[in-house]
Amino acid sequence: MKIFWAGAPTKVDDYLIKNHGNRLVTFAYPNDIKNYLDRVIKIESNIDQNIIIDCGAFSIWNKGGHIDLQNYIDFLVQLRKKYSCYFNSMRFVTLDVIPGAKNKVPTNEQRKDAAKKGLENLYVMLKTFKYDELIHVYHMYENPDYIDTILENIDYIGISPANDVSSKTKRNWLIQVFDYLPIVKTHGFAVTALNLMKEFPWYSVDSTSFKLSAGMGSIMTRWGVFNISKESGKSVLNTSPAIKNGIKEYIKELGMDELELYTSDQARYLINAKYMINLQLELNESGKDTMYKYSKSQQSLF
Predict the structure, then answer these.
(1) Which residues contact 35 (CB under 8 A, 6 or more apart)?
(2) 175 vs 189: CA distance, rounded Å
(3) What Å distances lie between residue 91 and 4, 60, 84, 149, CA to CA?
(4) Number of neighbouring beta carbons within 10 Å of residue 148
(5) Measured by CB atoms within 10 angstroms of the end CB, which terminus of the chain is less buried, N or C?
(6) Domain limits, CATH 3.20.20.70, in the chain
(7) DSSP secondary-structure letter at 9?
(8) Global pTM?
């Protein structure tokens, strides 16, 4: 499994580049993309790293904006020409169409229309890009027949649970999706829960939780997430003695300063980046070939 660090750039991007961390960036912030890619060139001429460029359709739609498909394609063509040689793989997410209006639950007809228009965008992008350069997203609530259509055209499908449903609902939906899917590359968009990473045979996932938790004063450890910022009034000292000692040793093992973690979000970004790199190694070691060993639940409602 490949874990992609998502979200706005931070000072730990250099660490991720040097340690072969995968990165997801978004067209909603094109300058961030170029700045990150220029750092890649400056730090290393060729790295064992993968990158996904997301269309950022929801972020821009949420702000009342609109993405012109041809502008998006032209931007990606320029990126591919200049930067693709620096990565193991560079994948582009096709342009989503967001159903309905902001702050309103979309109707089934609106969801159906958005999915159809999204497929039309895929067909347009396939005139410029090869099938193995694109990721098309299958969203929660869409007809499962779209999965077949997507996989008839490309070899990498994005799976996007809804953000406004419970973890249990997400898991039940994912069971249905993976019961339906053949053996294929899947990318879990915003799959942050460790249990969901472990249970399903993802080829890759992305998450902003590594960054967001650090910004909110927390560090991620094998014992869980702990809020330790000075502003929070809490620290790892409030945990049980066994966990407290374990976390202290963990911090030392990673070469981090405990006091700095209390006061610096950049230090917390870094320790969470290290956690992410180690988690990717552990998941791949413990779950070798899980992409090919997923056991169907026989409970699918599709």
Answers:
(1) 9
(2) 16
(3) 12, 20, 9, 19
(4) 11
(5) C
(6) 2-207
(7) -
(8) 0.90
